[in-house]
Inverse folding.
């Protein structure tokens, strides 16, 4: 008997819905399932840097985001204590970032998948992966009615996040792993205008940042090294507010604002997983996770969805061998991700920067091109490898000497 679906996607948020949408737009029969119903929230501070925004634009979804009233963020400001590095991280094609609530973003993405023709089943829990021999052939799960449902397809994609059942079931090999490095909490404030700015504050073993989101709210996220996670979670508010006090002018603005929601937070492990095997693939956090301190996860999930959709299309319709096409997906993902992964892990350690980094930051300060480039490293528009390359660093120091800094 033939399969009802070409591809089953488990998980329908930032990775699963765009993948389902892209495949459905190419004419594939796609089933996307999620245990959640939409709109619903999930733990994330949801800043989408310009590269992620560029994909929303390409997919024709950006206008739906802006129509929700979510304000653009054109300036990133990094207050490192003695001075602030302030730059514009965007590109001419994608000049700004956005921080849409996940209730807003994920609903819009899942609807786009359905509009493209994917069958979306919400409140559907996948309990196990079905196999024939080594090959994954489908899923078994249950819906709200509770009865067991089995669906088959030549390919099952795990877009099921950090605790991916698909990755566990197939034993996807992990590499380049790092333990949780920092723990952060966040909440939303009203009465804290940001005027199109992302503001970040680095105070040694404390770091925090703020940006605007929907409904005139501002998200503030703040954290400490993972070693303090257990101790500090007994009184998150006290530790969080004490951290903000390390930047008195910002703390004063927060003091005049009002917190509207409770604190939530966590610490996450860092890893890459082999993202394919017989009858299965992984996208988004299921395949690659990194500390959220540089806010890359959503943009990465979008990129993986694009790369994976292309690879699946090449194998299903264009006869390219699976190893080749999916191997190219893995190679492209890793090549894009490795430099940012290293930068993120280093930053998430929250160790004081070595003297040469402090000197570099001082030289960057006041040099607008260099400040834009530094902001771009965070945003993913400047490669960390290129920015921190000795020749580039040399030029920044030379410019600083020339200007007498
Ligand atoms: C505290 C925190 C802050 C973050 N801040 C940012 C940020 O500012 N910017 C940014 O870009 N990234 C951020 N991230 C990362 C970002 O949230 C993730 O990278 C992104 O959500 C990954 O999307 P995903 O679709 O891969 O997984 P998820 O968003 O985790 O979605 C997985 C989906 O799979 C479903 N699922 C799981 N198992 C099953 C099952 N068995 N059956 C059915 N459904 C299932 C879940 O219900 C869920 O809806 C943050 C992460 C954390 C933890």
């Amino acid at each position: 008997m033939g399969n009802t679906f070409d591809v089953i996607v488990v998980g329908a948020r930032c990775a699963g819905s765009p993948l389902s949408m892209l495949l459905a737009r190419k004419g594939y029969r796609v089933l996307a399932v999620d245990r959640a119903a939409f709109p619903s929230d999930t733990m994330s501070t949801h800043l989408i840097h310009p590269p992620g925004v560029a994909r929303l634009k390409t997919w024709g979804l950006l206008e739906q985001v802006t129509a929700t009233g979510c304000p653009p963020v054109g300036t990133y400001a990094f207050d490192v204590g003695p001075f602030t590095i302030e730059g514009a991280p965007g590109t001419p094609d994608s000049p700004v970032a956005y921080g849409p609530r996940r209730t807003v973003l994920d609903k819009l993405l899942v609807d786009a998948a359905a509009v493209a023709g994917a069958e979306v089943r919400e409140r559907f829990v996948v309990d196990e992966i079905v196999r024939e021999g080594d090959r994954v052939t489908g899923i078994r799960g249950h819906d709200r009615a509770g009865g067991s449902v089995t669906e088959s397809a030549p390919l099952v994609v795990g877009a099921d996040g950090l605790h991916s059942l698909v990755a566990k079931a197939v034993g996807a090999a992990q590499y380049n792993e790092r333990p949780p490095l920092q723990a952060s909490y966040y909440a939303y404030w009203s009465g804290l205008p940001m005027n199109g700015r992302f503001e970040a504050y680095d105070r040694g073993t404390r770091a925090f940042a703020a940006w605007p989101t929907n409904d005139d709210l501002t998200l503030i996220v703040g954290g400490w090294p993972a070693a303090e996670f257990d101790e500090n979670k007994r009184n998150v508010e006290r530790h969080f507010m004490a951290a903000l006090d390390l930047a008195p002018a910002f703390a004063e603005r927060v003091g005049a604002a009002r917190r509207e929601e409770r604190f939530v937070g966590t610490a996450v492990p860092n890893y890459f997983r082999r993202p394919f095997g017989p009858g299965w693939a992984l996208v988004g956090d299921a395949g690659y996770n990194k500390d959220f301190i540089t806010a890359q996860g959503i943009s990465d999930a979008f990129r993986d969805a694009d790369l994976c959709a292309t690879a699946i299309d090449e194998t299903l319709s264009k006869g390219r061998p699976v190893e080749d096409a999916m191997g190219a997906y893995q190679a492209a993902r890793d090549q894009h991700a490795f430099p940012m992964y290293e930068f993120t892990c280093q930053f998430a350690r929250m160790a004081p920067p070595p003297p040469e980094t402090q000197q570099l930051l001082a030289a960057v300060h006041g040099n607008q091109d260099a400040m834009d480039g530094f902001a771009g490293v965070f945003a993913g528009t400047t490669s960390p490898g290129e920015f921190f390359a000795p020749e580039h660093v040399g030029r920044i120091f030379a410019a600083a000497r020339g200007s007498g800094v």
In short: The pocket of flavin-adenine dinucleotide is lined by residues 10-11, 13-16, 33-36, 42-48, 125-126, 159-161, 165, 265-266, 268, 284-286, 292, 295-299, 301 (CB under 6 Å). The chain has a mean pLDDT of 97.
